[in-house]
Design brief:
alpha/beta, 5 strands, zinc, five-stranded mixed β-sheet, EC 4.2.1.1, Beta-carbonic Anhydrase, Chain A, 8 helices, 48% helix
């Protein structure tokens, strides 16, 4: 396993500071320069956080956390649900890239959570809503359901043997909710 590039606490501070910048921004704040693109091509990526979030087009982790190229390893899937593919991606970023922090980032006004609460979809969407239903049970409040869904994804990540070993060495798994209405990230 590659050593962590920084402590999980320092990574969390960078995310919180980045979100504060974002709240007052009109344009992106992360470094996307040509020089950084060339540097990461030659030296690889060293993301300080892994962010598992929803595919919703209003949820843009790099913007939300004022991050640039190489800062975040982002995994997106509707409803920020976890399966073996996401776990494999998380384990890769944690063990090979040295990312010390995993953030499961849910959001308000989530269509997947709403579908799990109020509808019974068919097709492949059902795979997503069934996972969310396991997380939320009979909960009907959208925000509470979102938080329960985030916590279930966190538990599934922490259940991974590789992640459990990395947590012993300082890695952290945290949950958060992005408030679409004002841009604020609330860490759970």
């Amino acid at each position: 396993m590659k050593p962590f590039i920084m402590t999980a606490d320092k990574a969390m501070k960078k995310l919180k500071d980045g979100n504060k910048k974002y709240l007052d921004s009109e344009t992106g704040k992360g470094n996307i320069s040509k020089a950084l693109r060339l540097y990461t091509k030659e030296h690889g990526q060293h993301p300080y956080a892994i962010v598992v979030t929803c595919s919703d087009s209003r949820v843009i982790p790099e913007s939300i956390f004022s991050a640039g190229i190489g800062d975040l390893f982002v995994i997106r899937v509707a409803g920020n649900v976890i399966d073996d593919h996401q776990l494999g991606s998380i384990e890769y970023a944690a063990s090979h890239l040295g990312s010390p922090l995993i953030v499961v980032l849910g959001h308000t006004c989530c269509g997947a959570v709403d579908a799990a609460i109020h509808h019974d979809p068919e097709g492949y969407i059902k795979f997503i809503t069934d996972e969310i239903k396991l997380a939320i049970g009979d909960e009907k409040d959208d925000f509470k359901a979102c938080c329960l869904n985030v916590r279930r994804s966190m538990a599934l990540i922490e259940h991974s043997l590789d992640i459990a070993k990395m947590e012993e060495k300082g890695m952290q798994v945290v949950g958060a909710v992005y408030h679409i209405e004002d841009g604020r990230v609330e860490f759970l």
